[in-house]
Amino acid sequence: MPDPVLYIGNKNYSSWSFRPWIAMRVANIAFEEKLVPFDMGNGNPAFRQFSPTGKVPVLVDDGLTIWESLAIIDHVARKHPDSGLWPHQSDHRSRAMAMSSEMVSSFPALRSACPMNMRRTPAPVPLTPAISSDVDRIQSLWGQSLADSGGPFLFGEFSVADAMFAPVVNRLDVYCFETKPEVRAYMDRMKALPAWREWEDAGRAEPWIVEEDEA
Known about the structure:
- The protein is built from eight helices and four strands; from the N terminus they run E-H-E-E-E-H-H-H-H-H-H-H.
- The chain has 215 residues and is an alpha+beta fold.
- Helix 1 links the parallel strand 1 and strand 2 (32-35).
């Protein structure tokens, strides 16, 4: 059976592509990568050739097309139960799902003001109460999970939750948010992952500039 194909966008900017990509890389799940850049505003019409939503990421696995980052990670985690992408403890699995779902639906102020940008020169942005509220909530989630699990990642070993929040690590870093010591240490561990460095190096080398994401 051939490896599944993961369609992604620009590594410098595509936070939703980064999530399943780093999950599968860290878990050593084989896949073929196909990068289709969005070097224009509002995506790329070519996405419609493989994506039912016209967006990335998309996973094609043995004829099955799966869209949306969390659904893709859940699919590969269930297909590879020994990957550890879902925590083994039942309560940790439930909390990881809750946190991952919150990531999908929440933090609009941070997302809007601070797009993921791997090659951005670190510098702060003007804070608003909404941005500060988003960052406080994220730090609370991370801090509690790290305290409960003992680390080094949110639920001990690298999991779905770490993959879902990976782009936020970049945001808190390159937009120079003040972080608690345990949060900064967690961010440093994420950024030290070989998979993270591989993605970041590729993103920095990309030629495409999307002005809308250059905050």
